[in-house]
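Input/output pair, single chain:
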Amino acid sequence: MTTEDRAPDAPLEELSFTVTGYVSKSPHEAFEAVADPEQLSRYFTTGGARGRLEAGTEVSWDFADFPGRFPVEVAEVVADEKIVIRWEGDESATAPKTETTFTFEPVDGGSRTLVTITEKSWKLTEKGAEGAFGNCMGWTGMLAAMKAWLEHGINLREGFYK
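Output:
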């Protein structure tokens, strides 16, 4: 449930967050930068991504700076518009899997794209807040790295975390 879906004074049921950014590429190019494992591996999954993000599949991501390949379930894909992924949660999640949604909205006649990343399923606890805030930082970094890669061919993650 997002803040738009509930009454202003209703209590929170889970923590969620949204990050956004503009990329000076078409929605198709921005979408492919996330869906295509070869592109994703160039700027985000520094240990490599295996498998294209297609609905109903399971892919794996690895980060050289945080080793450990982990499975990612692809729940929904609408080409050039939306990708929904899930992966195993821990005790700080409200559901067995956290859920992240990427949307790609055309701007300026499609020459630019507003990329929105929303993640949910975090408990209203200290550990839940740590998980949500940590992942918010991660997705913000991913979005910035995607922009730098697509627009300038620069890998921002290289040497950033270690």
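Helices lie at 27-35, 37-43, 126-152. The beta strands are 15-23, 48-50, 58-63, 66-78, 82-88, 97-107, 112-122.
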